[in-house]
């Protein structure tokens, strides 16, 4: 009898692992339909603090969700009426002028290569410089084209974008019920520790998401206004690009600066200098004024760890890996810390 109980206890973890593996395989097979659920959960996660704040003022959860949704839809309506039209106009113009910009940039790079050829530089160094210039050209043009294609693809995902707030509503309404179901599936002896772990991860992620989105909005807005004032083409598009890439620490400024400088260079060398000065100024404002006040030390990661996480995320999953690298590293830090505490 004791042997049977022991075998039963041994089978439970094995069955759990097999069940999780099969569940992962199932979700992988239907990954194409999971986009609105993932976006809905993310939206619900971002809006949840506002709903909870209203609940703390003794407003029912359903009414709180309705108030937050009305406010959110109002902001979205303003965005559609005032930001989307110039964005679409910039997209159409950019798609039309990319070939001519590419030719101009290639001619400029060719002139630079001719200039290098007149100096007594060893052939090996010349070849390295030429290959580096060509590589920068390909990467920069690829960034511009990928960004345009990504925005056009986002517009093409209209069904998922419409379904996202509907899915988000049910997540917001039933967050506690879903959490209770997950907890009941966990053995009782682990529940308290996992609740504390979940609260810590939740706090880290909320601080990062809230701070990063606010920073991205402010930096994107400053960039759009600055680009418009210096007479740069596509100010809204560049502002959105800078705002999105600003979520990526350290590398985000470089990723967005290179295409913006190339677009400015295709119009005027002086304009390129103005763009460079503007982006340096905005990064100084963001790094010295905005980021310390908004993000502070909420992530709690050393800069070397952030750089390593970004390089690893970019190597494994490209641009998406860059976006997820820092919050993923922050969550991993919490897990490692809890594991270390348990081991000692």
Tell me what you see in this structure.
It is a single chain. The chain has helices spanning 2-29, 35-55, 61-82, 84-117, 123-156, 158-173, 175-184, 188-229, 235-245, 251-265, 269-294, 303-343. By secondary structure, it is mainly α. It has a domain at 188-344. The model has no long low-confidence stretch (mean pLDDT 77).
Compute the CA-based radius of gyration.
25 Å
Overall spatial form: globular
By helix and strand content, what is the structural category? mainly alpha
Number of helices: 12
Strand tally: 0
Mean pLDDT level = 77
- Return residue spans where pLDDT drops below 50 for at least 5 consecutive residues: none
Termini separation (Å)?
A: 35 Å
Please write the string of helix (H) and strand (E) elements: HHHHHHHHHHHH
Largest sheet: none
**Residue fraction in strands:** under 5%
Fraction in helix:
over 70%
């Amino acid at each position: 009898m004791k042997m049977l109980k022991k075998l039963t206890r041994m089978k439970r973890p094995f069955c759990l692992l097999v069940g999780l593996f099969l569940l992962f395989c199932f979700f992988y097979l239907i990954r194409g339909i999971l986009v609105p659920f993932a976006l809905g959960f993310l939206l619900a996660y971002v809006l949840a603090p506002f709903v909870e704040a209203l609940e703390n003022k003794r407003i029912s959860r359903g009414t709180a969700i309705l108030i937050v949704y009305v406010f959110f839809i109002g902001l979205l309506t303003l965005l559609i009426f005032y930001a989307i039209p110039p964005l679409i106009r910039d997209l159409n113009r950019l798609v039309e002028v990319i070939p001519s910009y590419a030719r101009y940039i290639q001619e400029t790079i060719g002139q630079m290569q001719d200039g290098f050829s007149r100096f007594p530089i060893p052939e090996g160094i010349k070849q390295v410089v030429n290959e580096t210039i060509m590589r920068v050209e390909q990467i920069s043009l690829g960034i511009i084209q990928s960004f345009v294609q990504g925005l056009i693809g986002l517009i093409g995902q209209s069904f998922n974008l419409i379904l996202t707030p509907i899915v988000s509503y049910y997540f917001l309404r039933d967050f506690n019920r879903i959490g209770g179901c997950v907890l009941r599936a966990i053995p009782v002896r682990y529940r308290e520790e996992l609740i504390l772990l979940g609260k810590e991860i939740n706090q880290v992620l909320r601080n990062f998401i809230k701070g990063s989105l606010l920073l991205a909005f402010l930096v994107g807005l400053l960039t759009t206004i600055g680009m418009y004032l210096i007479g740069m083409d596509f100010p809204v598009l560049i502002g959105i690009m800078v705002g999105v890439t600003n979520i990526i620490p350290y590398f985000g400024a470089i990723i967005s600066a290179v295409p913006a400088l190339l677009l400015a260079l295709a119009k005027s060398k002086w304009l390129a200098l103005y763009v460079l000065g503007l982006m340096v100024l905005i990064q100084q404002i963001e790094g010295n004024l905005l980021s310390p006040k908004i993000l502070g030390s909420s992530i709690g990661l050393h800069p070397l760890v952030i750089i390593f996480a970004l390089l690893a995320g970019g190597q494994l999953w490209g641009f998406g890996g860059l976006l997820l690298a820092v919050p993923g590293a922050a969550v991993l830090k919490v897990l490692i810390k809890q594991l270390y505490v348990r081991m000692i």
